[in-house]
Amino acid sequence: MINPLKNAGFFQKLIQQSQQLDKQLENEEVSINENGVEIVMTANQKVKMVKVDGIEEPRLAEVFNKILQETKMVAAQRYMQLAQSQGE
Q1: Which DSSP helix (H) or strand (E) runs through 55?
Q2: Which sequence spans correspond to the domains of the chain?
Q3: How far apart are CA 48 and CA 61, in angstroms?
Q4: pTM across the whole model
Q5: In this structure, are strands 37-42 and 47-52 parallel, antiparallel, or unpaired?
Q6: Of 57, 55, 50, which is closest to residue 33 (Cα–Cα)?
């Protein structure tokens, strides 16, 4: 007989590790400064700051964060479609 709870502990541990990793990635920053444009992002792809020619542009950071979120949603949908087609 198959025990549906057999892997529950494994998945719970995996979720906890994933949450811990997300917190670590929030605290790691990556920055680039080229051609008068400086961008600082967290390692989990959240734009913290955008400067153009030394002037901070918070609206650009907001827009970048919105588009990044939208692309993540599109990618998640595609992965779900792929998983569903593999199960058929």
Answers
A1: strand 55-56
A2: 29-87
A3: 6
A4: 0.70
A5: antiparallel
A6: 50
The answer to whether the CB of 35 falls within 8 A of the CB of 52 is no
HSE-up (13 A, CA, CB side) for residue 4: 0
- Bridge partners (DSSP) of residue 50 are 39
CA distance 31 to 40: 4
CA-based torsion, 54, 56, 59, 61: positive or negative: positive
pLDDT in tens, 15-25: 888 889 989 99
Predicted confidence (pLDDT) per residue in 32-62, tens digit? 999 999 999 999 999 999 999 999 999 999 9
